[in-house]
Design goal:
The chain is 74% helix and 0% strand. It is an all-alpha fold. The chain has one domain. Helix 8 (115-135) runs parallel beside helix 10 and helix 9 (147-157) packs antiparallel against helix 10 (167-177). The relative contact order is 0.21.
Length: 231
């Protein structure tokens, strides 16, 4: 991969990760405009680590509070509060995307990256997102979200394994269908993204350490730029 293209893809990742337009789809599509090949699911997953670090910084207070509540709640049942329940729910809701991602990795790396399929999914899912936001009333605050709600949103997050399904779009859409307010939906979406993207990125890092056709230099550059732009 050329260094300039790696930098461009880092910018694309940094911008699209936080918009409901599928960053993985854009990392698949953009190289086509420059006559380049598909750089693969592994490159996408590793580059997403850059943007997830910007999420870690932005939500650091929430994440530290949840982590402390998990530790206290694990040691003492009397310490279990809303943050403890939210933390447990997020961990459990990460299971679907982790399990499906592992079992269906061959499909995700090949058939799911077909350019025509990606384009069709982008188009159709945009209508689903519109319907979810247009016709569902805003009722639930983040304090009213149950473990069941978070798990359903976690199931929707697994759709993001296929380019064209935006991770934030899928989770926020599921939350809106559950009548969760927009700000609460966005917050739970990004909190859910942390374990999912970190696990995916680490797994793919181990995988491409054996065979990285893109090259470590361009991969690291794209990841760093994704972090800076995302932040």
């Amino acid at each position: 991969m050329d260094w300039w293209l790696a930098g461009l893809l880092g910018v694309v990742q940094g911008i699209t990760e936080f918009l409901p337009i599928s960053s993985s789809a854009h990392l698949r599509i953009v190289p086509e405009f420059f006559g380049s090949k598909d750089f693969g699911a592994s490159f996408t997953a590793v580059t997403q680590i850059g943007t997830i670090f910007s999420v870690l910084i932005y939500f650091r207070k929430d994440l530290i509070r949840i982590a402390k509540s998990l530790l206290k709640g694990a040691l003492n049942k009397q310490e279990r509060n809303l943050d403890f329940n939210l933390g447990i729910s997020i961990l459990v809701a990460t299971i679907p995307i982790a399990l499906i991602g592992y079992l269906a990795q061959d499909f995700i790396r090949t058939t799911a990256r077909n350019l025509y399929l990606v384009a069709i999914i982008l188009l159709l899912f945009s209508f689903v997102m519109y319907l979810a936001d247009r016709f569902n009333k805003q009722e639930r605050e983040i304090t009213q979200i149950s473990g069941k709600h978070v798990f359903i949103i976690g199931l929707a997050q697994a759709l993001a394994l296929i380019p064209g399904f935006s991770r934030s779009g899928a989770t926020i859409t599921a939350a809106r269908f559950l009548k969760i307010k927009r700000d609460a939906a966005a917050r739970i979406s990004f909190l859910l993204s942390v374990p999912a993207i970190v696990l995916s990125g680490l797994y793919e890092t181990l995988d491409i350490s054996k065979n990285n056709p893109v090259g470590w230099g361009p991969t690291i550059l794209a990841t760093l730029i994704a972090f800076v732009v995302g932040y």
